[in-house]
Amino acid sequence: MKIKNTKLSDVYMVIPDDFEDYRGSFTEVYNVNKYRSSGLIANFVQDDLSISYRNVLRGLHGDEGTYKLVSCIVGRIYLVVLNYNNKSKEYGKWQSFILTEDNKRQIFIPPLFVNGYYVLSDKAVFSYKQSSYYGEYKQFSVKWNDSRFNIDWPCNHPILSLRDR
Prior knowledge:
With 165 residues, this protein is mainly beta. It has one helix spanning 32-37; strands at 2-5, 12-15, 18-21, 24-27, 46-53, 57-62, 68-74, 76-83, 94-100, 106-109, 113-119, 123-130, 140-141.
């Protein structure tokens, strides 16, 4: 696997090794020893899947204690990660990523960063590993179009939950 720095400190892109032949492909999506030896240390305790449809925008959500490892296992999404640590010199800095079932990229997100995604395909399955159980830390949300951050989304009128409006 390859670990790449992003423009956000402590956020990393992981590109798992992929084996392909005439039958299809095989990808090892997580191996605790490989991740830890690469410096990505988090004790993941919960895996979740979110299924969404075209034009749905979920997030931006985060908390003060959870590491996440996110990927798109079906479809194509536009992921945004935002540094929401108001004690950081990088507070308010964000980066977007295109995650797809074909590129198999994963994004390692530390606590005090929020993330959200917009679905570019007809359907997408978003996978995330978490280092804490849901509700263990109080979550915070940032409005997707909060003018303080000027996030460049590929949409103007996404489908949103009541929480994200």
